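Much of what follows relies on a compact textual record of a protein's fold. With that in mind, consider the following protein and its fold in token form.
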Amino acid sequence: MTATPATPAVSHAPVHAAEPVGDASDALPGGTVDAVVIGGGAAGLNGALMLARSRRSVVVIDARTPRNAPAEGVRGLLGLDGVPPAELLARGRAEVRHYGGRVVTGEVTAAAPAAPSAEGDPRFTVTLTGGGTLRARRLLVATGLRDVLPDVPGLAEHWGHGVVHCPYCHGWEVRGEPLGVLATGPASLHHALLFRQLTDDLVYFTHTTELDQEARARFAARGIRVVDTPVAAVESDGGGITGVRLSDGQAVPRRVLAVASALWARTEGLDGLRLPTEDLPGGMTGRRLTSGTAGVTEVPGVWVAGNATDPNAQVGASAAAGALAGAHMNADLARADTEAALAAAR
């Protein structure tokens, strides 16, 4: 298996300001806790919620830099459609704390296995920015992913508004608009067909990619216009995107651009865990953390949930994955507790 790759040297992903801290950071506990959750998004918080409700000592390490920070609302989440991302996460932190869990604001600089217990139960050491240290029996990695955009001037600053990536997250909000798909690879072909459902005015910019005759025929049948001249820049009027400027100087009016970004699992500080990774399937560009049923990994005592292992998961699916991982972690801890009690009784 391969080790976790370093972050790409050149990243054209949008830079998100950290979410304003609306609630105080909890103090680091002493001793060894049952679980440390690395990542305070939907997956991490729901995993922590399940553990805390099972009377497990759990600490969430939250960097407060959620991927969906630029979005106005979380879409497709039953009962909470349109809730602002920051509000949803604030509710989640409060719920974890209600059951005794802790949420610590910070970033992990190192995480690695430590000497196991006498019974062979796993142990981990997690180091935070500023030098704080945690000791844990189990880890849940829910760090999410990083979107890496093409290096096109004017593109990144409109991320999450005029530049979108998911027809299910943003599609209804941009329905009927003059829309363009900026191709980045094979995944963009599928992208175009999904966004065609949302608008009758769709232009596919091949940019630096190739488009075969079969794909061109399919696009023509659906009324999708193809532009083969590379895109030089995204233009705006201060209120949003107005179009794209091609390398030959021609301007193509558009109000929205859809881009299939490259997706890289966020693994900073996790090299010591030696978690395996794999390329993304389905023509997508990037890498994810490899996991099995309920987020179990090849590293004993470590689970992973959310976009770090499933880039296609929306908020609801990520939260569900975190909950399932948390439940399996609690079951694994219960097994270890029983083995320790049995050994002591003997």
Notes: The first helix runs from residue 42 to 53.
